[in-house]
Amino acid sequence: MLCRGELKPTPADLRPMRCRYVHNNVPFRRLAPLKLEEAYLDPYIVIYHDVMYDNEIELVKKMARPRFRRATVQNAVTGELETAHYRISKSAWIRTEEHKIVENIVQRTEDMTGLDMSVAEELQVVNYGIGGHYEPHFDFARKDEVRAFQGLNTGNRIATVLFYMSDVEQGGATVFTNLRIALWPKKGSAAFWYNLHKSGEGDFRTRHAACPVLTGSKWVSNKWIHERNQEFRRPCGLEPDHGEFAI
Ligand SMILES: O=C(O)CCC(=O)C(=O)O
Ligand SMILES: [Fe+2]
């Protein structure tokens, strides 16, 4: 139902949502503000519009194409990366230093989130063909996944920025299954949410999925930001937070 677009938010759901220009206290963004649209308030999920430009998208796609491999997931028990029937797509990683344009995208992601990008993972580019999808999951590691992100030593994935690098003719929404909302891909926009509460606990309300692509092809890229270095940007709290936003 969510994937089909049949569960529309009611006027009462939409009533408190706002769109606004934001600068997030970044001096440059006072001149070039970002377009923010609220998609959900608690947990806070926003869409930024027009934050990846067509020339950037073309370049990122060009860099990703020759590197594409069948996307993998991390086995919760062994920590090994493996293919799974519940994630059908191709993915590739692009390092920030590889191109000035990628550096610009990462700087913009910092402006959008107010978070330190030195502990973010590289840009993960993903392409879903017809039938491509990703079943409901969390982006953060659960307590029992002891080996997750071990090599990185930067803590858990505090936040996700998901860039939409194409429109999708039919299907392909990102759906939050507990919140019962669907985000429809729009080329150049990006979704941003925190995966963890301020206490560092995983926010289980952020469970989400990529619906199957029915017609066309879907391109996204993920920027996953980690916990380390964020203590002044998003201070910790003892309690799980509710609907507060750091920026
Ligand atoms: O492609 C999407 O809409 C969501 C992708 C996703 O959740 C992921 O790659 O972790
Ligand atoms: Fe995800």
What is the domain tally? 1
Instruction: Please report the number of helical segments.
Output: 4
CATH architecture annotation: Sandwich
Q: Which structural class fits the helix and strand makeup?
A: alpha+beta
Mean pLDDT: 93
Strand order of the largest sheet: 1-2-3-15-11-18-9-8-4
Question: How would you spell out the order of helices and strands?
Answer: HEHEEHEEEEEHEEEEEEEEEE
Low-confidence stretches: none
> Distance between termini?
33 Å
In which range does the helix fraction lie? Answer: 10-25%
For the sheet with most strands, the description reads: 9 strands, antiparallel
Written account of the structure:
With about 250 residues, the chain is of the alpha+beta class. It has 4 helices and 18 strands. The strands form 4 sheets. It has a 9-stranded antiparallel beta sheet with strand order 1-2-3-15-11-18-9-8-4, with helices on one face. The chain starts with 10 loop residues before the first helix and ends in a 21-residue tail after the last strand. The mean pLDDT is about 95. The structure holds 2-oxoglutaric acid and fe (ii) ion. InterPro entries: Oxoglu/Fe-dep_dioxygenase_dom, P4HA-like, Pro_4_hyd_alph, Pro_4_hyd_alph_FE2OG_OXY. Pfam families: 2OG-FeII_Oxy_3. It comes from Ceratitis capitata. GO terms for molecular function: iron ion binding; L-ascorbic acid binding; procollagen-proline 4-dioxygenase activity.
